[in-house]
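Check this:
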Amino acid sequence: MRRIWITASILVLSFVGSLEGEELRFKEEFLKQLVDQVPTILKSFDPSTGRFGSGIWTCEDQHMIYPLAVAYATAGEGNPYYKSSEILSVIIKGGDLLIKEADPQGRWLFIKKDGSTWGMIWMPWTYSRWIRTFGLIAEDMPPEARQRWSTALAVGYAGISQHELKSIHNIPTHHAMGLYIAGKILDRPEWCQQASEFLHRVAAAQSDGGYWQEGGGPVVFYNFIYVGALGVYYALSRDAAVLPALERAARFHQQFTYPSGHPVETIDGRNPLSMRFPSADSNRPLTEGSNLGNVGFTFCAVGRAYLKRQWDLLGGHKRLGPDLLASFLLYGQEGIVEPEPPPSTRQISVLKEKGAARAVTLRQEPWFICLSSYTSPIVNSRWIQDRQNFVSMYHDSTGVIIGGGNTKLQPGWSTFTVGDTALLAHQPGDENPVFTPKGLLYHVPSEATLVWESDFGLDLVYGPAVCRLRIKIEDSRNLDYRLEASPCELPVAAHLTIVPRLGRELVTGSGHREKVGPNPINLPPERLQGQVTYAGFRLHLPAVASLHWPTLPHNPYRKDGHAEPEEGRIEIRIPFDQENRSYTVRIEVLSESPSP
């Protein structure tokens, strides 16, 4: 076994500082924050069982051994936990429970807090934290405990080495990072070589635009897993081959992050937008709110600029959970921040691949707009969402107005539909649904073409129909959204998806008032009368428009796919007919002061 290998990395990389001027400096502050969070971690620990947390036990509950180990191994002013025998005992008991609950191959039952089970798994997030913890405390462990952990980790990583590095995907990428660390700590150089070769393939598989493709295009949230894994690997290997991929990824996230700090969901094939903010207690990409970054962003000036912007916006440097704090302390690199570009009245950024434009963002303060031309056939997998929603519109005072991202089994989230939308719906309790329509319905286009030079919009092909959208910013408070559809024998409709603000009241042109909450709202055209006022903006709509709440997604992370109302969208449905093939929606922002 290689002695104190990770501990040495702390001593080499760690130095103190603060956020100031043209540098990002965070380590002194982060150590203080981690120390402050240790008592809360210890309160969640049951010494009789060795478990952390509450409710149904999952192997991920034991992740807290990792930040405890960083606190134990990191010397610093005001850290009473450095080399604490009490902390060491807690960490050992926590890891021993992982050994107890594992099967002979080192796998755990993948069980979630809702009680759903997803089979046996070498949980990548747990293994990477466990092996890093071992590297930090191994020298100080009693010999019998060190042997237990060494044997168990070797069994688990032997299985990972044999079975888990088969294809380029976010989970194998994280596994490869852990395998590299295991090879160093357990003195298995062949694992280090296998992991390095795999991570070189991962870096090479990155698109020109700075993302890793899953499901026909970017997966913005899951992109953070690739960045985090390559970042930890680089911190420990200093393998310069992966640095260009880290910088490209940082530029990608710079472009596809709203001015509020939320990742842009419009091009994401896995996760829709949630307006809730994260707990920021994991290196994994969060399925809610804004991501506060990870260590992979610290190795280039543009990445550090991204982190500084996120932390400044969201108070992130005071909101990180112990897991992220631990990784920034262990591996993070402080340094210069790339200067922000000079202010511009109108900034258009185009993401191109092989010369073709695939997505475009427009920042014309206070507006921000994203258009996507990523299309993909429907995949019969719960994890790969239908690329159906192609535009998002954001204003500094309201956040995202129109947009919200992609899902499955829900044509009401599509920018346009051609055919009968009743032919595709989620059936309550169905754990293995068929994700394709049961008849003639086109809710996912086969082609999409961006327009951004003279006009700004998209041309979309849905079976026999061509649908178009154009966006024109009139001024700081008004935007026109033009929708068009070619003649077609099938029913054609446009759908405006509004991200809900629960508890806020909406008011229609007829004077009808209703709070958006758990109860359904369905307002026909005569109740809407061409107008909806909600959450600081007003939509001026065609007379045929109707409103529907909640238009629910299919949630792939629940086994039966059900979704709660807050995950839904307010859908404005605008049908076309033979006489009316185009409509214009005026979006009016009522106040330019930031919304709470």
